[in-house]
Amino acid sequence: VIGAGASVGPFARLRPGTELSKDVKIGNFVEVKNAKVGEGAKLPHLTYAGDAMIGAGANLGAGTITCNYDGFSKHRTEIGAEAFIGSNSALVAPVSIGARAYVGSGSVITKNVEADALAVARGRQADFKGWAAKFRAANSARKKDKS
Description:
Elements: E1 7-8, E2 13-14, E3 19-20, E4 25-28, E5 31-33, E6 36-37, E7 42-45, E8 48-50, E9 52-54, E10 59-60, E11 65-67, E12 77-79, E13 84-85, E14 90-92, E15 95-97, E16 102-103, E17 108-109, E18 118-119, H1 131-146
Parallel strand pairs: 1-4, 2-5, 3-6, 4-7, 5-8, 6-9, 9-12, 10-13, 11-14, 12-15, 13-16, 14-17, 16-18
């Protein structure tokens, strides 16, 4: 089912059980399976939404995936109205994201997120000064030895 004013971009795939409400945007390279997408929600590009309920006005950033299969069973993801999911996030079902909640880019979400909350779940960046120069020097020497 595709609602009035909804748009589906090139290379998108709508699989069985998909319902797109009015004014939904499905962009390039998006796959939607067994999901209901609320009015005005946006899945702009490079997203997989399977076994999901996506609320009105929600936005799923590029690379967002609903991880719905655990090897034995399919599980559902619920995303509340006007929620914002940052790019390259994985939502590991069963999980619920509350209305107007934010998920930080690159997060792997395994627990429910309350309405209006911010969830960030990713490893901290560690920088090692001078490491790249040492690595190149060591590998250059090995490369010369092989010649």
